[in-house]
Each structure stands twice: as structure tokens, then as C-alpha cells.
Amino acid sequence: MDLKGKYYRAFIEREKSLEQQYSAARAKKQHDKGKLTARERIDLLFDAGTFEEIDAFVTPENQGLDFGTVESLFGDGVITGYGKVKGRLIFAYAQDFTVMGGSLGIVHARKIARVQEMALRMGAPIIALIDSGGARIQEGVASLTGYATIFQNIIESSGIIPQIAVIMGPAAGGAVYSPALMDFVFMTSYTSYMFVTGPNVVKEVLNEEVTQEELGGAEVHAKKSGVAHFIYDDEENTIFALKKFLSYLPTNNVENSPLLPEETPTPPLNPKLLDLVPDDPHKPYDVIEVINNIVDRNTFFEISELYAPNIVVGLARLEGKTIGIIANQPKVLAGVLDINSSVKGARFIRFCDAFNIPLLTLEDVPGFLPGLDQEHAGIIRHGAKLLYAYSEATVPKITVILRKSYGGAYIVMNSKNLGGDYNFAWPTAEIAVMGPEGAVAILYRRELAAAEDPAALKDELVKKYREKVANPYVADQKGFIDEVIDPSMTRQKLITAFNALGNKWVKAPSRKHGNMPL
Ligand code: HXC
């Protein structure tokens, strides 16, 4: 066969017609909005020359309904395929807003379902680059069934391969539930939006005027709803951060995360840790400084930084191995546990547990937040999520009590009897049913009322309570913690303990699934 003859020419013509999809005029429409095209996003994500596209030439089924020319519809508004990201196999799909607003018709949906199924079979992560007006209105119920298949695939892959959504334009209607079901959501400020119903519907139904930004902009989802785990100021930075984040994750649930040891290892001893936590339990400090002084240099990658900042969660490395960190943040609301922080912590723990990422808990918590608001909004059932997630997790779990560890919060934050593998405390730890002031007020109510100088008596009793009850040595003597450690040796202790737990294996009795309080 003459490969330079008419067959070859026809093949080349067809290949060229694909490029019409990405004409300068259509690209300009995206660029004018501060957005990249679907193709540019794919190029930024994958290592150069590694992306293999699938189903590039498929067209929508329902072309009778004035959809446009066939050439302009090649691919049906979504690029799907696989390639390498920092050398590892990743699957992805990128919706093209310039084709019918990136809306999801049945062919578009089949393409996504196909890469989802391939990713699951190959045991590789999948990235969804979303820029879509939701279900394609012209295709009616067919597009709804398409979403149902996609949701079903995400749920079947959940806990087996990492699934990450990057919102790069609107995500309206059905388009929001794929990200919501995935492990993490990235958004770009001012160019990405997520809402179940857009501003027009809000106006019709509730007669309220809202902008897309107010309703579902990146800031709203990062700070208020907690839907977005990461926000960045432009698409390049978003994709750059996503690639860095992926380097912490295993490709699937039976593998470990890549080992990335430091060129110059961080020293095991760090005297700076002796000065970071104030002795006075009322004084705040930034727990992120503590984290940064324990883990490998510059490896802490915070998740949901702006949502429920009274708890800090994120991934880091210890001698090159990924660990998950949950830390109370004394700088915000004294690090108290409330509804949002409990849910944030619980979801993170379950992610780490599903993907073999050992957990480190840094504890300094006065308890659960009291009050009408929290009780009426269900702190009982939401706090139970954190308790359940810690207890259920079978990955290595280590706690370091830095300072306060009172009441229910002591139990919840990975205490020994809840399955903590190693529980350390710093000499500054106060472990008790409640803080010294509260305990003295209850236990010595009558004595304080009758005292000539109640303030002086209270000080004396608080001191006595600290000496006798609220210190780490009492818990140490009773075996409720494993060791009181020198803070400067924390990194060394953790490396030794996590290494010892490297082959931890827990076989749970057979059941369909537990009934987690949702
Ligand atoms: C078909 C659509 C579309 C859709 C947008 N377009 N959404 N075509 N089906 N769902 C088309 C527009 O007609 C337009 O075509 C082009 O995409 C660009 O849209 P614009 O409106 O000009 O863009 P913009 O002003 O940026 O607004 C974007 C938008 C808005 C906020 C997404 O288009 C919008 O509100 N769309 C509808 C969102 C929605 O309600 N979707 C269905 C939800 S129901 P032309 O030819 O003019 O360029 C659903 C199922 C629910 O998804 C499942 C729940 C579980």
C-alpha cells in the first residue's frame, strides 16, 4: 500500500480537521476570560509528549438538533486520555467550554466513563479538569443518565485510586457532584464557580440577586462551604500545585506513596521545638511552626487551609515518606473542636487510611466547643464522625500531646484506647477530664465561696491540681501514654516509631460496612 497516496492524505486531512476544534477565535474566547483552553490545560498537566488522547473523533449522537458542523464537534467537548505526570501514569479528562459550554451529552459522558474505567483497571489516579454548564439541555434525559454513570464510576473507584477535580470555569448542575464525590477539589480564584443552581434560578425561585462569585466562587467554597480544598490565583499555579500534590500520593490503594528523601537530611534533633509552645496554656501559638520543625524541610502541604482553621490537616514527609498530619491550631479559637473542624479532620483521616498514609496527630485542644449553636447544629453527630474515623483507621497512628488534652477531645484525638499505636507527650502536656480552672471551680465550689481570699485559694488549688492530676507523668505512670519525650527529639522519636510500624497489619472482621454517623 502506498502510504503517501490518497489513503494517507485522507488520514492527514482528518488529523488536521481536529485542529479546527482549537481555532484561534475559540481560544481567544477562553483567554479573554482569563482561562486556558482544554488543550492548554492538558499540555500543562502532562510531561511533554506523553499524553495519549482517546476518542478524539467521536461526535455527538444528536446532530439533528442544530448542534453545528461535525468538525467543530469532534471529541464532543471533552478531551480524554492518559499520560505521565512527573513520570507516573495518570488518566484525565478536560472539558472544553467552547463546545456547547462544556455541557455533558451522552457521548461526552461515555468518553469520561471510558477513562474512568481504564484508570480503575490500571490502578492509576484520575484528574477531572472541569469547565461545564452541566447536563446538555438539548439531549435531555440521555445526558442525565450520562452523569449517573459517571457518579457510579467515581463511587466504585473511591478509596481505590486517587480522584481529583480541578474546577477551571463554571461547574453547574450535575457538574458539581463529580468533584463532590472525589477526594480533592482545586479551584481557581475569579474564573471558577460551583453551584447546583445558578444565579438565574436563584432569582426565579427566591427572588434574590447574587453574582456567580457570591454564590459559588473559589473563596466561598474554600472558606465557607469547605467544598474546595485548594485555591490558587490562576490556572498555571493551580495545575503546578496539583502536580506537586500528586507527588505525595500513591497511585492506588495497594501501593505506597513515592519515597522522596531529602538531598541533605533534616537533623533528627531540633532545639527550636523547646521554645515554640508557651508554658502558659492560655497563650496561643502557630502549630504550623511546630509541624515545620518536625517534618522534612518545606514538605508540609496544607489542605483546606481557609476552612475550619482551628484544625490543621495536610501531607508532609518524614525521611522522604508521606505522612498525614492532623493538628489542633491554638492560634484559632484556641484549637477547639467544633462541627466544621471535626468533619474536616474526619474526611482527611479517611482519605489517608484508604491510601496507606500513616497519621500523625499533634494535640493541643481544650475540648469541644460548647453552646446552643453547636449543640443545635449537631456537634454530637458531627463530632462522632471524627471519633469514628480515628478509631476505624488501621494505618499507623501516632499522637504527640503538645499541651492541652482535656475531656472528650483527649479521647477523640487518637488516644491509646481508641487505637493509637504510639502516644507521646511533651513535658508541657496537661491531660485531664477538664482544665485546672474549671475542675477547681466544680470540685471546691463550697470552699471557694467560704474563703476570705477566693482568688488566692483558687490559685493554690489550681497549682495543686496541675501537680497531682493535669500533667503527663500521671498518664505516663498509668500507661495511657507511652512516653514523655524531650520536644527537641520529636522528629527522631517519630521516625523510629513510624519505621517500627511499617508492617502494621490489621485484619478487621468481615462485614458489609460499618454505619458511620453521616
Ligand atoms: C447546552 C449550554 C449549557 C447546557 C451552557 N451552554 N450551558 N448548552 N447545555 N447545560 C451553552 C450556551 O448556550 C452558550 O452557547 C455556551 O454554552 C456558553 O454559555 P454562556 O451562557 O454564554 O456562558 P456564561 O455566561 O459564561 O455562563 C455559563 C453558565 C451558563 C453559568 C454555565 O451557561 C448557565 O447557567 N448554563 C446552564 C446551567 C444549568 O442550569 N445546567 C443544567 C443543570 S441540570 P452559545 O452557542 O451561545 O455559545 C443538570 C443535571 C442535574 O446538570 C443533576 C444533579 C445531580
Explain this structure to me?
Helix content is 40%, strand content 18%. It is an alpha/beta fold and 518 residues long. The chain has three domains: 3-246, 2-enoyl-CoA Hydratase, Chain A, domain 1; 271-429 and 471-500, 2-enoyl-CoA Hydratase, Chain A, domain 1 (Alpha-Beta Complex); 434-470, no CATH class. The strands form two sheets. Strands 1, 2, 3, 4, 5, 6, 7 and 8 form an eight-stranded mixed sheet that branches. The chain is elongated. The protein binds hexanoyl-coenzyme A. Hexanoyl-coenzyme A binds next to helix 6 and strand 5.
Structural class: alpha/beta
Proportion of residues in extended strands: 15-25%
Spans of at least 5 consecutive residues whose pLDDT stays below 50 are none
CATH C-level name of the largest domain: Alpha Beta
Any idea what the radius of gyration is? 27 Å
CATH topology of the largest domain: 2-enoyl-CoA Hydratase, Chain A, domain 1
Between the first and last Cα atoms, what is the distance in angstroms?
64 Å
CATH superfamily of the largest domain: 2-enoyl-CoA Hydratase, Chain A, domain 1
Report mean pLDDT, rounded to a whole number.
93
Number of domains: 3
Helix content: 25-40%
Ligands and ions found: hexanoyl-coenzyme A
Total beta-strand segments: 16
**Count of individual helical segments:** 22
CATH architecture label of the largest domain: Alpha-Beta Complex
Which geometry do the CA atoms define? Answer: elongated
What is the element layout, followed by pairings?
Elements: H1 6-20, H2 24-32, H3 38-45, E1 52-54, H4 70-73, E2 78-85, E3 88-95, H5 106-122, E4 126-132, H6 141-157, E5 163-172, H7 177-181, E6 184-188, E7 193-195, H8 199-206, H9 212-216, H10 218-225, E8 230-232, H11 235-246, H12 273-276, H13 287-292, E9 301-303, E10 311-318, E11 321-328, H14 339-354, E12 359-365, H15 372-377, H16 379-392, E13 397-406, H17 407-412, E14 422-425, E15 430-432, H18 436-443, H19 445-450, H20 454-468, H21 472-477, E16 483-484, H22 490-500
Parallel strand pairs: 3-4, 4-5, 5-6, 5-7, 6-8, 11-12, 12-13, 13-14, 13-15, 14-16
Antiparallel strand pairs: 1-2, 2-3, 9-10, 10-11
Bound molecules: hexanoyl-coenzyme A.
